[in-house]
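U., I forgot to send this yesterday:
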Amino acid sequence: MARITPNLNIMIRAAEKAARGLIRDFGEVEQLQVSQKGPGDFVSAADRKAEQVIFEELQMARPDYGFLMEESGEKEGKDADNRWIVDPLDGTTNFLHGIPHWAISIALEHKGEIIAGVVYDPIKDEMFRAEKNEGAFVSRRRLRVSGRTDLMDSVIGTGQPRRAVEKQAKFMKEYAAVTAVAPAMRRYGAAALDLAYVAAGRLDGFWERDLKPWDVAAGYIILKEAGGFISHIDDDRKDPVFTGNVLAGNDKIFTDLKKVLRAV
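Result:
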């Protein structure tokens, strides 16, 4: 098992601490389903509380680092080279409906490059983690992308845009094109976990548009360190983390999926 460096240990500790509150809140969601108001405000509060816990833990350990967070936005640090990228609750809709598939995502960016990341699924107690040149792991097991080479035998993950008619229309065309060659499709609703699942070989490929950096950053380094490939869907020269258009998979499935999507 690869060593857990100080930065990675800080990230793991922050994710685990935030998870305790989220698990308690998740236990309340089922009760809120019956109320007329619904659990939306409650989940937003849970999201913000988890982010505050992560912020405090990371800032205590690395007081000069900057932050890019889903709820609180960007906070510049004295150290301009290092920045934490945080999603305290990826899969909010799942959480809101009592579906036990959501995660905490924390990445470390150094001089514009993602160098470490954790994606923690508290319900299954799976801590996906990676650091540049150190490999990717879930708990004590090393991660490797799948060896499947045929789209017909593959399981492909995706995410669907919520708004904008033109984006929905684009997605449906892409979905139809992919299902024609890879009929086993999955939409789990948590992009950070989708990328971690590609890294673990549970999914063979994945694509989604209009994601945010905090959805992608940690999964990006975990996938790369597991031997996977990840790029912008339409243009290899663009950064998938900060453009939000993400295509991922093992070598063969990534290449074949790219051809299908770029032909739509």
